[in-house]
Amino acid sequence: MATIKDIARELNIGVSTVSMALNGNPRINEETRQKVLAKAKELNYVKNGIAVDLQRKSTNLILLVVDDASRPFFSRTINAVQRKVSEYGYDLLIATTFNGHIETAKRYISERRADGVIVFTNRIEDEDVLRYACKDMPIFVIGRYLTAEHVYSEPLSNVTQGEEVVEYLYNKGYRKIAFVKALPHTLGTIRRFKAYRKALTQLNLEFNEEIVFNANGSEYEDGYRITKEIIKKIDQIDAIFYSNDDIAIPGVKCLIDHGIAVPQRVSVVGYNDLPYSKLVTPALTTVTTCQTTTSYAVDILIAAIRNENVQPIIDQYVQELDERKERLIIRET
To answer: Rounded to whole angstroms, what are the CA distances from 24 to 4, 19, 174?
Structure first.
């Protein structure tokens, strides 16, 4: 591939002259500019956008890294982020770490392909966030607490709604509460399972590993398939806590298809309050999630990019944290 140096050598002029001509600098006369453009076309020269961005230290992009962009929950997240980013005149670039494929996301971060980054997956480890965050590319992490110079994260509550789910079921008289993991490595599953274990301990309920199940996915088929396995042990279970609605909804369908009444025989609770969780029959009891965190993340990044004081934004978010927190939504299951 031809470079600016190739064009300069062919025309016997300086590299800086070629660069200014290609970028329309008025200091270059029209005759020289036309010669440069003609030679660039002849040599099939293509401008290196990455090099230009690095030179000017700006891409006008915010990078969002998620594990699986196809999930309904992350579709909502992406929509919220792109709307907020566009308000500031920026564009959104999305990279995924689906099935552990992290190379592209890590390369985009290490090469500073964006002006700021939102990391919403634990596939990008803390050490990588700390290594690459800098003044020219601040990073905001969601779902874990990590702070350092040019690194920001959401304040995490001491009480998660995973604990509230177990306490709610306990107060309804349930004692044999199963837990179903979607993808075991995801931030949501890790946090909710930890809360599940903690709540069992606080309520003096025995942890039974035999009624902890792994769906290994968040597709409809994953939820239905794992629930068929749960049914084999249904005598040991009177309530099921699914780590997200994606697998809870097909789980309820599977239970009913196999003649197991919900909630009369077994109670079900999901997580994330997906739009269709209230449209299914019976309507799914679930937990709302805080979508405003993504708006907060963008506000923080833009302020950091512009070298503005981020503390007022942090203070306001902390002050409003109680209104933003996740809440148990009790429906029919």
So the answer is: 14, 9, 72
Q: Are strands 151-153 and 267-269 parallel, antiparallel or unpaired?
A: unpaired
Whole-prediction pTM value? 0.72
What tens digit of pLDDT does each residue of 40-73 get?
A: 888 887 766 555 555 556 788 999 999 888 887 8
For residues 259 and 120, the answer to whether their CB atoms sit within 8 Å is: no
Residue 147: both structure tokens together: 């702070």
Distances (CA, A) of 95 to 8, 72, 144, 209: 37, 16, 19, 35
The answer to whether 204 and 268 have CB atoms below 8 angstroms apart is no
CATH number of the domain at 161-287, please? 3.40.50.2300
* CATH code of the region 57-153+291-324: 3.40.50.2300
| Beta pairing class for 286-287 and 328-329 | antiparallel
Q: Are 162 and 196 in contact (CB under 8 A)?
A: yes
Strand partners, 91: 61
